[in-house]
Structure formats: C-alpha cells, structure tokens
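Closing statement on the PBG sub-project.
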Amino acid sequence: MAFPQTRLRRLRRTAGLRDLVRETELHPRRLVEPLFVTAGGAPRGSTDREPIASMPGVQRLSISAAVQAAGEALALGLGGVLLFGVPDAKDEEGSGAWDDEGVVQLAVRAIKQAHPDLLVITDVCLCEYSSHGHCGALGPDGAVDNDATLELLARTAVSHARAGADVVAPSDMMDGRVGAIRSELDAEGLLDIPIVAYSAKFASAFYGPFREAAQSTPAFGDRRAYQMDPGNGEEALREVLLDVAEGADVVMVKPALPYLDVIARVKDAVRLPVAAYQVSGEYAMLKAAAAAGLLDERTAVLESLTAIRRAGADIIVTYYAKDVARWLARP
Ligand code: PBG
C-alpha cells in the first residue's frame, strides 16, 4: 500500500465536514458575564458607565446602567450575569457586603425587577468592602481569621439571596465556607439557592486588572495565605472534593487558560457542572495583543474559550460574553 488508508484530513476538507464533526461548541447559554456595579447613581458623579483603564471595553456601571447591561445580556441569550459590588465606602469589617441596602443587594433587586428571566449570580466575598482589601476578617495578629470570616460570608450570601439573587458564588477561599453558607441559607428557608463555589482559585497575577476594576487590591501583603499555590494540581482536587462534600452545586476553576489541566482533572473527578473563569488578566492580554495588531481578536478569543470548554468547563465566566454571543450570531 503506497499511502495510508486512514487519512484524517478527509474530514477537514470543507467547512461542512468540519462543522459536522466538531467535538466542542461554544454557546451563549454557557457564558456568564461579570458586571461591576457602583453604589448610588452615576459613579463618582461622572457618568453612568465609567471606563476601567486596565480592561478596555469593560466599565463600572451605575445601577441603572447595570439594569440596561443585564437587559442586553438577556437579549443576547447569555447564561447569566455575575455581579461584583464597588461600594462608596469601605470599613474594617467589610460590613457593606451584608448590608441589605448594599450595592449588590440594590442592583439585584433592580435587575430582577426589570428582567426576572435573567439568571443573576452574586460574588460573595469581603475584599471589595473592607478597608484592608483582604477576602476575610482580620484577627488580632493581622492575618485573615478563617473561622470568624465564615459567619460574615454566610450573612452576605443570605442577604444576596433575600434581595433576589438566583445563585451565590463565594470567591474568598476560606476553609469550610461552602458548608457554612449552605447551612445558613437552609436555616433561612433558602433551600433552592445553588452555590457556585470558586473551589480551585489560585493566587494569580492574572487578577491584576480586576483589582483596579473592583478597587480591591490588598492594602498590605497578598492573598497567598488563602488562595492556592499555582503549582498544585492535587490540592485543587482536594479543594473541589471538599466543596462538593459541603454541598456545592457547581465547582469553579480560576483562572482558566493557564489551568486547563486542572479543569480537565476536576471534570473527571466530579459529577457536577464545572465552571471556569477567564479572568481579567486573560482578557487584558487578549485585548492588548489585539490592539497592538499582534492577534486577531475574534479568532483568538473563540479559540481560547473553545479550549476551556474542551478541557471540561460546562460554564465559562468571561468579560467577552457579549462579544462572543454577537460573533456566534454572525459567523
Ligand atoms: C474577589 C474576586 C477576585 C476575582 C473574582 N473575585 C479577585 C481576587 O481574588 O483578587 C478575580 C476576577 C478577575 O480577575 O477577573 N475575591
């Protein structure tokens, strides 16, 4: 036989064949768009949409602008939005997080009233609300006190759910927080509110642009005493399996593209939906390369997100969600 009988290129010859055999699809329903919401009316008395320098194309939104953005997300068929609050004032405790009149609570109410069919997920953490910018309460030694933080996170989750959040997503990386939040939600009769746990959240340089957006850079130190070491894959599985045992409904890996191996291992290890967060630094890299003319943005973004899906993510949180929905509608 002069030639191989098996020729894999046969199925690559035309667009029709390639479409027919494609294993991994992107769909807007699988994408969640993060929204940064500021308290009160126009942020800092300027406009309803304040650009974020580190994240071109993303803005901090007033509540009315967030309602509008949520309407666009719904119209584009996105899976949902994930709300981050940027409060006017911060304090040592981060009490704005569980304030029933806090920025996320007000935003959830306004969004659900205008768009009851849109799925609204809230980020549950203290870093945007505390003056020190850490994800938990500080103990007398100045370190984050794990167990003292649990009650505050649970209170925050209940407050979000009471305001109308469909899903809560704790991103703090305290030990035991999924169980603490589940118990408190259940005790308050909020049995049907799912928890998307940021289970394998790594201490990553790729969160840099987000911290400018959410004004949540730690005032001192870093987050390595609670977020995971980037070298650890086995430990990521331990984190995920613990969250499953504590009652997580969806587990998340974050960041996404540098951690595709972790996504794949997690997908193999659990029988739950897996989410991945294409974080601010991943977004900023693609934006910067595209702006410099070094990459074709659309192709590079679709390829990155397809790779994250292929690795095993059922759900992707991405700042590109709306762009992708538009691109998929006009191939
Ligand atoms: C808050 C939180 C962070 C992100 C999501 N939730 C920042 C951090 O841990 O410092 C990062 C999201 C992104 O970079 O897009 N705990």
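The first helix runs from residue 15 to 21. With this model delivered, the sub-project is considered complete and its resources will be redirected to Aim 3.
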